[in-house]
Amino acid sequence: MNCPQSKKTTSKRTLLAGVSVLICLLFVENINALWTASRPDGHAPIGVHAEHTHHKGEWMFGYKYFFTYSDRHLDGASEVPLSNILDNYIMTGKEMMMHMHMLEVMFATSHRLTLMLMGDLMFHNMSHAHAPGYGEDHAHNTSGLADLRFSGMYMFYNRNFQRMHAEIGFTLPTGNIDYFEGYNMQLGSGTADLISGLTWLAQRERTSFGAQASGQFSFYDNKNNYRLGERVNATAWTGYVVNDWFSPLFRIDFNHRGNIIGRDPRLDPSIDPARDPNMQGGQRLDAGLGLNFYVRQGSLRGVRFAFEGLLPLYQNLEGPQMATSFTGVFGIQYAF
Ligand SMILES: [Cu+2]
Cys-Cys with 322: which of 27, 70, 107, 177 at CB 3.0–4.6 Å? Predict the structure, then answer.
């Protein structure tokens, strides 16, 4: 009987076969090793900006609509009833809706460098509650062009189904900052700010992952004697490819805003906490669900549609300050 020997040979053969299959897989991974945007999760959830680059010579035009709704106040992490705020102030915001219509243009000058221009029209609707004896509740609207953003995204890693790029750019103070209803009603920062970001993207056959850290920083006082505090964002997401035209995506988003430095002398902080420069900062952690659609045929071939809804999991605000209750995003993008 030579049973033990044949068993040994069999297991050796199995091992060899296994190793060659692994080597083959590695080889296959290597020839297809580049990350690709040509799938529905090839763009991040639509609420994320500057998260992809383009092929050399490619243009992209996009429209994004952001809706943010606020209807409560937080001081730290705890909710403050309106009546408590009106014990100490003459008025305060009761409900706030922000509508942002954003146009983005991207152009890749090389496979490494993509330039981007973003401009948005903002509409803020705010209703105010007054303390007893200080007049009727009323509403305000502010609207107009916000700050224009110019940036360049440089891809420095593109291997093993992964990509990384850095963004650097600036904003121009095109948004009006002369509203008297509070810092949160202004349409811009009033300063030319530095914007920067770092993005990592990775793909598997049916799943994808991404992470981005970004910031916006003001370095000098605007014409109204203040500057916005630092704005820092960190987000991470994962997507699943259901088929070649649809991906749901899940995202976690952390947002930090520093308080305002300096003070607009025309805004009296004793009237409304929204006019207090020390009640503008805070942190928020959101969870988001996104739906990405990528049209693959017909006359709309190549067009992307996307939706995202975000709900806060945790907020800690310098307050009392109006807290975000919901963010909704819709977007449409086309590259050629
Ligand atoms: Cu693009």
Answer: 70
Determine the distance separating the centroid of ligand 1 and the alpha carbon of 106, expressed in angstroms: 5
pLDDT digits (tens, 9 = 90+) for 154-202: 999 999 999 999 999 999 999 999 998 899 999 999 999 999 999 999 9
What 3-state class would DSSP assign to 13?
Answer: helix
Cα(16) to ligand 1 centroid in Å equals 45
Per the domain annotation, does 171 fall within a domain? Answer: yes
Q: What is the DSSP letter of 243?
A: B
Residue 258 lies in a domain: yes
**DSSP 8-class letter at 21:** H
- The DSSP string of 181-214 is S-GGG-SS-SS--EEEEEEEEEE-SSEEEEEEEE
Give me the domain span that covers residue 294.
Answer: 32-335
Is residue 16 one of the residues assigned to a domain? no
Digit-coded pLDDT (tens) for 74-114: 999 999 999 999 999 999 999 999 999 999 999 999 999 99
pTM above 0.85, yes or no: yes
CATH, residue 131: 2.40.160.40
Tally the domains of the chain. 1
The answer to the question of residue 64 being in a domain is yes
Residues 28-48 pLDDT 10s:
555 458 899 999 999 999 999
CA of 23 to the centre of ligand 1 (A): 36
- Residue 6: its pLDDT value, please? 55
Distance 17 CA to ligand 1 centre (A): 44
State the distance from the centre of ligand 1 to the C-alpha of 163, rounded, in angstroms: 15
Ligand 1 centroid–CA 256 distance in Å is 25
Rounded to whole angstroms, the Cα distance separating 60 from 40 reads 16
